[in-house]
Fold this protein.
Amino acid sequence: MREPFLTLQEIVAAARANTAAGPWSYLIGGAETETTVRRNRMALDSIAFRPRVLRDVSRIDSGAPFLGQRMRLPVMLAPIGGLESIVEGGAASAARGAAQFGVPQMLSSVCQPGLEATAAAAETTRIFQLYVRGDDAWVDDHVKRARDNGYTAFCLTVDVAMYSRRERDLVGRFVKPWRATAPEGSNFQSGLSWDQVKHYKDKHDLPLIIKGIATAEDAEIALQHGVEVIYVSNHGGRQLDHGLGSMTVLPQVVAAVAGRAEVWVDGGFMRGTDVVKAIALGAKTVGLGRLPCLGLAAAGVPGLVRALEILENEVQTCLGLLGVTSFAELTPAHVTAAPPVGEHHVFSAFPLLGNSPTD
């Protein structure tokens, strides 16, 4: 990185220039018509702010708690499979960037260099996310490995009972590295049920996160099973097409949970204002997926750190202009529904780029 990026838009442009067609389509794409991808952005863009003025905002604290620890922002690196096709070092590079800046990393089980090597790459707060490819004993082994390597919580992704049709990948004949070596005929993920959640809670005390909750009804069932974190997610629009945007679902889940567990969210978050909206509506942590990948693709670990620095600046500016000095002062009264403006697509948060980055 010869000179610092000044905006996230520059990082997106640099990432596009550095990334081959196949990995780029995987990074920005979604399922079938990509309606859910667009609705993620539309849901965020349909929320406006209600600023309060004449508050002393000369000092802004944008830190936040995360599973009992203090983080620089209320965000984490969401699990992304196949990061090694985006940046040299894959998840290990992401871990180094997360550690340097001061946010957690959630590692995908289908990302190299794997559980142990990623943990060894950097001292950071980390969570392990598992796609189930085996029986209960197989899952138990991964829980033990995660605990032994300093992962502070465990996550099951539950919106992948069927692998979706991602047409950008199909048209470009791009196969992610992990799928090229995945065993054929495994039905463990499609057979996953609340029985496996019960088994986990009966056997393990590592906090459990259920990722892929999209209704208040399933959030309630998760609570009945003692799940510590309800993670609202539609897989970045990569799984079920024509789903609701995550920020449409979030208030419903927050109301159903009613403080009995933490609620996290991801899906289309690209700007500091996006993060502020989610926290105002009750999320504790925001998962960032595509944005960290863009930083890594643009300039490796320094590019990721720079993306987070810019995001932090955007967050602090937004908080100050809302008239609050910390996330703790945010309430739902700081936001309101509003008609969205413009077109909605994966990069509509970056209007100076136009539509060209999605080509």
About this structure: The chain has one domain: 8-336. The chain has 13 helices and twelve strands. The mean pLDDT is 95. Residues 26 and 148 are 32 Å apart (CA to CA).
